[in-house]
Fold this protein.
Amino acid sequence: MNETSRKTLELFIEKAEKLHEYIAEVNHLGGLIGVYRNRGDDDWKRYPELDGFVITFRWFLQPEGKDEFDISLYPSTRNGIAKRPKLLDLDDVSVHWKEVVTKAWESGNEFLKLELIDIDEPITRWKVLDVFIYGDIVHATQRETLKEWQRNPDLFGKLSLHFSVSLVFMFFEWILPVAEASRQELGC
């Protein structure tokens, strides 16, 4: 295996392990449940650990500017169109590893395209991730949409829960299996 592929897989494993630390160390209702509301309070609050989780999780969403060491599993264009991850372009990895990554990418993108059935307006999981990550936690490009959602506490609460659950589900369902396949690929 060439050095770029090896370092890319090592970085993927490192970031997946860091995400796992957030989940293992934070025990809000049995896991990383990132939002809550006090009785009688209209405003939803976010546990600060969720922000750290999201900053690391973003490695799996946002492509790295350079060609090497890009571990984004769900890269997309500015308008939300899914792009093929550069991970699939590694040419000196096993067929099994590529199958695991392909399954994670295809299944994860289908999951992200799903519209939320308990919301009255058409909002996808991808839109929820995008607005929470880029409307508050990391940037402010989606801030107006986030503020609009916050004006409706019931809607914001549902979307906040979808945000947290989506992050954790994607981690356990697709990111961890790719990290494990990467360990196997590296002989760790």
Observations:
- The beta strands are 35-36, 45-46.
